[in-house]
Design a protein that fits this description.
homodimer, about 210 residues, mainly alpha, Tetracycline Repressor, domain 2, 10 helices, elongated
Chain lengths: ~210, ~210
């Protein structure tokens, strides 16, 4: 009944996949209307229809990144969830904290691609107060989620109550962010097994 | 005796300061010949004399960043060094490790500016295999230096011998890299005192 709308949606998906491929290969420094158009075998003119300027393209790219990250599979967290009946408390605590953190690391090529784009976004985000505030808010929410798992683990007696959950969460997030950067630059030195080992060593010291 | 050479050097300093200011304000995403020229009140034509293309400008910018980082003052490490006679062993170990790591954090506006540029360089570096390899080598050397201090602290009985110094150094570097990113995006939540507190909490857990 609404073929025009269907075409429009199909085109939007095509645009967002082209943006993703450009980001994965060239980063935000290589993100131009021309590069996205070439990736779609379209004209730059068609793209200006979607993005009147560079900033609109940038904002869209960050939006694609956010949606892709929200929608991506989280095998480690799902396998922990599958191990217990939801709400019984057994799927919470340290095992869940570990699973959530593992899912954030570049353990697979897909996750490395997505992390590479996140890390790349820091340059443009730090140059734009509005984008920087959005990123800051994103990382604050992520710390809150981590703090929830830390508090669960403390309640279950798996982690020491010595430090407030928020402090532990801030430190844990820092550790994981840094490990992502290390692994992206030196995938040979930081294969998946070593990343997990470093994370486990960190959690054990808590 | 060599006024031409002196002019040339003065101009190079002017170019490198203009590149630095552009990077500090707009990041690598805003680094163009036009932006550097405007910063110097020069013509883009003059700049093409120095940089035939964008990649040459990029490589130069990374070089400026590296030199500025090598030359910057390191108050914490210097104060530790001042506390002992060089070579007596008392200036090594955990205190030196802590001082070196403190100097890497964005505790001052100058260090925040320099860290902001380093973090911004990750996008362009990850998009270029040669630049990525150079960054990887830089971080590998930094891990080696950290491992040296960890090994000293282990020898002095200040740190447990349970883990190899290289493993501890990799984890420590990850933690500091991540803390830099957190503090750049949320300077209000991560003021200097909290950064130092998080670092001390991390070192205490080792």
């Amino acid at each position: 009944m609404t073929p025009a709308r269907g075409d429009h949606d199909a085109r939007r998906i095509e645009v967002s996949e082209a943006v993703w491929r450009v980001l994965a290969e060239r980063g935000f420094g290589g993100l131009t209307l021309r590069a996205v158009a070439a990736e779609m075998s379209a004209t730059t003119g068609l793209l200006t229809h979607y993005f009147p300027n560079k900033r609109a393209l940038l904002a869209y790219a960050l939006d694609v990144l956010e949606r892709r990250t929200a929608d991506r599979p989280r095998p480690a967290a799902e396998s922990v969830l599958a191990g217990g009946t939801p709400g019984d408390g057994a799927v919470a605590g340290l095992a869940m904290l570990r699973a959530v953190l593992l899912d954030a690391l570049p353990l697979t090529p897909e996750n490395a691609a997505s992390n590479r784009i996140w890390v790349g976004s820091w340059d443009v985000a730090l140059a734009d107060p509005e984008l920087a505030a959005e990123h800051a808010e994103r990382y604050r929410r992520s710390r809150e989620r981590i703090a929830g798992h830390v508090a669960d683990a403390q309640r279950l007696g798996e982690l020491s109550l010595e430090k407030p959950a928020e402090e532990v969460a801030a430190a844990v997030q820092g550790f994981v962010l840094g490990l992502v950067v290390q692994a992206l630059f030196a995938p040979g030195e930081f294969p998946a097994a070593r990343q997990a080992e470093l994370l486990d060593g960190y959690l054990a010291a808590l």
